[in-house]
Structure formats: structure tokens, C-alpha cells
Input
Amino acid sequence: MEIWDLYNLDGEIIGEHIRGSQLPENGYHLVVHIWIRNSKGQYLMTKRSEKKKTFPLKWECVGGGVLKGEESLAAAIREVEEEVGVILNPNDGRKVLTQIRDYVGDKRVNDINDIYMFSYDGPVLLSEALTDEVVEVKWMNREEILALHQRGDMVSVIKDLSYFIDNTSGDFQ
Output
């Protein structure tokens, strides 16, 4: 059972939430999306396992829920290690954006989404991952990611990629 802190829109903790149960309308959980960019300007994309209940075999950046008592940067580091086996240096990344989302499409998500950008040029070996959530990784350029998005081959809850699509510098500033 995964327990998350429950936040109000001011970012204050107002309680806790058990993953999978219905979120209250005025309660939000904290999530992280982690974009990892190499020195060639490519981004690490991950393909979800066919065993995942939601969005099996869809592509996404690394991401996940922030656990109770955890800060979002620590969650970003943890999620990357769990999903792709890479241990990132916190000094190689930064939070580039926070989105508050009630809905993504018609799906109610009630999340505060901290989006991070990390620089990384080392190996990515799924054999080092701590979970089996990811079945494939691939370094992709912006055009390849946009093509995935346009084909509907990306996880739909990260469908709003305007921060990525509208930003040609690649660092979401």
C-alpha cells in the first residue's frame, strides 16, 4: 500500500491519501515527471511494462507519486533509480515547472506535478532497475517525442506537453 501526503492548492499538507482510492475534490497529491537530457540534446524515454494496469506499453518520461513525508526532488531521484536503474546527482537537475491539474482530458487527476530536468550522459541499463515497470528505454530527440505524442503512443496523463512542445530551447524555461 502506497501512502501519499494530501495537499491543498497552497501546497500545505492537509492529510494523507492511499493510492488507488478516490481523491477528495479539494485534495491534491504530489507527482513528479523527470526529463533526462544527454549532451546530444536527446531525452530518455521509457516504455511501460505490459503488466501495468494503466497505459501498458505506452511511452513516457520517468515519473511517479511522491510518498508520504518525501520531498519532490527526493522522489524524482528515487523514481529514476527504481524505474531505469540510474542514480542521478541532485546537483545535475532542477525543477523547471509546477503544474496544478484537476483533469487531464476527462480523467480527474487532482495532482500537483513537479517537472524536473536532469543532465545525464551515463549508461542506462534496465537490469539495474529496482522494479519491472519499464520494458524499454530509448534516447529520443524532440521530433521523435512529438511524433509519439501525435500518434497517441504516449501515456495520456502527460498529454499536455505544451511546456515541451512550445519550448524550442529544450530546457523548458
User: Anything to note?
Assistant: The chain is about 15% helix and 35% strand. The chain has a mean pLDDT of 89.
